[in-house]
Design a protein that fits this description.
The protein is an alpha+beta fold. Helices cover about 15% and strands about 25% of the residues. Strands 3, 4, 12, 13 and 15 form a 5-stranded mixed sheet that branches. A hairpin with a 3-residue loop joins strand 12 and strand 13 (about 260-265).
């Protein structure tokens, strides 16, 4: 093809493109000048979208009205609630604490002030109520989701800032005598046992020791009785901190006065006699002690990252197998 013919073709192409642009400009001006034309275009585009992406409605619209609360937006899940001696409270998701083997060192669950220490730990749903009794005979309640949520190492918030307490009102309650105590004994825990309860009792001491015992080793007594020994306490294992009814699927969570938390399953904890000293449950640092125990409502996959050997103690008239 000769050069002048190629030049003519390019010229015709440019002229055609120029005419198309002029026509487009004219069309756009007509659209902008007419509201009816704009609405027609919008309608057609919406019909095209419906044709391309239409599917059956997944929600049902009904003619019914009702009240809507903040709790409806909160997922129901288990929380670890910790309370310090000086009255600081917080909550954390249970999922922050992975399961460890018995004898682990645990994780930091709260970092209290130097003169403060963790006094209480329990598991509760975000939709559950926490009842707080005072020495003036009053009871206050909070939803667990109303307790401030913080990191594992945070102290939380002072309870007095969450409740409308009267001046000089205090973290107490009174009732009838349940058990006759001697010397410096004090009640540290209570569990409800029925005839259908198929479980064992875990006893935990402040120095990180504990054990499981069958319930049939505890005879029924009248209210106000002196009770029977559930574990031998010495300088080595320390005083009893808490008791929990458990089964093979249960997970327990221990917390120390320095805010360290250990979550572990009870399946590896041997069932041994009542009048014995127990095995090591958690490795503690010098001066550190367990202050609270909580049982998880759900079973999670265990991740073992620490394990200690069982320690044997001499004691009592028990057989060698039961002196653990």
């Amino acid at each position: 093809m000769r050069l002048h013919r190629l030049t003519g073709l390019e010229r015709d192409k440019i002229i055609a493109e120029y005419n198309d642009i002029l026509a487009l400009i004219q069309r756009l001006k007509e659209i902008l000048a007419s509201e009816v034309e704009i609405l027609n275009i919008i309608k057609q585009e919406l019909l095209d979208v419906r044709k391309q992406f239409a599917n059956p409605r997944r929600t049902e619209i009904i003619a019914k009205s009702g009240e809507f609360s903040l709790e409806d937006l909160i997922v129901e899940e288990d929380m670890v609630v910790t309370v310090s001696h000086s009255g600081y409270i917080k909550r954390n998701a249970v999922s922050l604490y992975r399961a460890q083997r018995r004898g682990g060192k645990g994780k930091t669950g709260m970092r209290p002030k130097e003169e403060d220490f963790v006094e209480l730990l329990f598991i509760a749903s975000t939709h559950a109520y926490v009842l707080i009794f005072t020495d003036l005979g009053k009871v206050y309640w909070l939803k667990v989701h109303e307790i401030p949520q913080g990191g594992r190492a945070s102290r939380g918030k002072a309870i007095v800032n969450l409740l409308q307490l009267s001046p000089n009102e205090n973290r107490t309650s009174r009732g009838v005598r349940g058990m006759m105590l001697e010397n410096e004994d004090c009640i540290i825990g209570m569990e409800v046992v029925s005839e259908t309860t198929a479980a064992t009792l875990v006893t935990v001491t402040e120095n990180g020791y504990g054990k499981r015992t069958n319930l049939d080793e505890y005879r029924i007594q009248s209210r106000g009785g002196k009770g029977i020994i559930t574990i031998k306490t010495t300088e080595r294992n320390g005083n009893v901190v808490d008791i929990k009814l458990v089964n093979e699927e249960s997970d327990l969570m221990f917390i120390t006065d320095r805010g360290k938390v250990l979550r572990t399953g009870v399946a590896k904890l041997s069932v041994i006699g009542r009048n014995t000293m127990g095995v090591r449950l958690m490795v503690l640092e010098g001066g550190e002690r367990i202050v609270a125990v909580a049982k998880l409502a759900e079973k999670d996959e265990e991740h073992g990252d620490s394990e200690a050997e069982e320690e044997t103690f001499e004691g009592g008239d028990e057989s060698p197998e039961e002196t653990l």
